[in-house]
Specification:
Order of helices and strands: EHEHHEEEEEEEHEEEHHHEEEHEEEEH
Number of helices: 9
Structural class: alpha/beta
CATH superfamily of the largest domain: FAD/NAD(P)-binding domain
Strand content: 15-25%
Helix content: 10-25%
Length: 417
């Protein structure tokens, strides 16, 4: 049995960021990790995966990208190395191979955390197991024929490992469009089922789109009540981190031969059905894109940049008319369905009454209803950038400050956050 003021569960970017801040304040704690630091980057990434954000946009508390290519995009392996070095540089007290079995209220105040590496009692617990925990595959997947292979973004590795034939990719957020693009480039026929999506160009007027969003404060602007009221929030950006900076939005994919359909709504044996919503969803995404680009143009003018950057380019439309609403998989030669339909979380080990009916941890800016229990690294935790390698630093500072207050420790040094 060990006693520490705080336990962090998870040694990804969120857990390590909170740990760095607690260490800077001199607070004893441990970080429990079922594998090694950055485990998900090690085990659940396809081979070509790169960060969507440029390397310079990888700021963590007390840590910055030190390499020679700030405008490039780290591979999954490079992110693993980056976070492993961060853990070492910040002196993170990581206990590797510690699969958490239960978190329960302790005999007095605080919690008892039982893991395969031992048991800890702590006044505060931070759940930093991440947003991308388990692939969320719809129930209709069970209705597909046994001869159709099914993959998720977490189990896909490379085009050559996918069964011969065409591929149906379901989901048009960041993962879906990247995988559709890669499969099409490998010579596969691809059908992409697209629901609500957020369309942006990789570069606009000669600068990376995330440079603009960072400069304007859009990524780090705290979410408003209206943002929170919008179910599901904004889908992840249709971007890919590639050296050639090419776009992977729907018009670009159509130009590379990808067939785009509406949202997948049913599967019945070897036939699938799509909603007839492609014209509406693409029109809405294009309208949001035009509004964003207009704000960028206004910012460029106000900042005196207009004469130093490229002129605005026209927005290419999506060909949405006549999209298929039904497809016979065998007739189309589709032998694989790749689900890029997001992720869910599961907390079978969390025996504290903080879960909502959907199984998600209820929290406000990382603070749960249970005293001393916090979360970090959740999507839209306080702002749009909360799950970015860069944006998690803001939420980590808020959570670390609450932990320090709980245990009566000194406040965070200003330089640490």
């Amino acid at each position: 049995m060990h006693r520490v003021p705080a336990v962090i569960i998870g040694a990804g970017q969120a857990g390590l960021a909170v740990s760095a801040l607690l260490s800077a304040a001199g607070l004893e704690h441990v970080v429990l990790e079922r594998g090694d630091p950055a485990q998900r980057w090690r085990s659940q990434s396809w081979e070509s995966l790169r960060l969507l954000t440029p390397n310079w946009l990888s700021r963590l508390p007390g840590w910055r990208y030190p390499g020679p290519d700030p405008a490039g995009f780290m591979t999954a392996g490079a992110v693993t190395d980056y976070l492993t070095a961060y853990a070492g540089g910040s002196g993170a007290p990581v206990v590797a191979g510690a699969d958490v079995l239960s978190v329960r209220p302790g005999a007095g105040a605080g919690y008892r955390i039982t893991s395969t590496a031992g048991t800890w009692d702590a006044a505060a617990v931070v759940v930093a197991t991440g947003w991308c925990d388990l692939p969320s595959v719809p129930a209709m997947a069970a209705a597909l024929p046994a001869g159709v292979a099914q993959l998720t973004a977490a189990t896909y590795r490379r085009p050559a490992a996918v069964a011969d034939g065409a591929v149906l990719v379901v989901g048009a957020s960041a993962s879906g469009v990247q995988l559709a693009d890669e499969l099409a480039a490998a010579g596969r026929r691809v059908v992409l089922a697209a629901g609500t999506h957020t369309r942006v160009p990789r570069c606009y007027r000669g600068l990376d789109i995330l440079w603009w969003l960072d400069a304007m404060g859009t990524l780090d602007r705290p979410l408003s009540a209206a943002d929170w009221a919008r179910p599901g929030g904004d889908p992840s950006l249709q971007l890919a981190g590639r050296a050639d900076l090419r776009d992977v939005d729907l018009p670009a994919l159509q130009g590379r031969g990808v067939t785009v359909a509406g949202r997948l709504i049913a599967a019945d044996g070897g036939r699938v059905r799509f909603a007839d919503d492609l014209p509406a969803s693409t029109a809405a995404a294009q309208a949001r894109l035009r509004r964003l680009l207009a704000r960028i143009d206004a910012y460029a003018d106000a900042a005196g940049l207009a004469e130093e950057i490229l002129p605005a380019a026209p927005v290419a439309p999506v060909r949405a008319a006549g999209a298929a609403t039904e497809l016979d998989l065998a007739a189309a030669g589709i032998r694989t369905v790749l689900w890029a339909t997001g992720y869910r979380r599961a907390y079978p080990w969390l025996h504290v009454p903080v879960l909502d009916p959907a199984g998600e941890i209820r929290h406000a800016a990382g603070v749960t209803p249970a005293p001393g229990l916090y979360v970090a690294g959740m999507r839209r935790q306080t702002r749009r950038s909360s799950t970015f390698l860069d944006g998690v630093r803001h939420d980590a500072a808020l959570v670390a400050a609450r932990v320090l207050a709980d245990v009566g420790a000194a406040a965070l040094p200003e330089a640490a956050a």
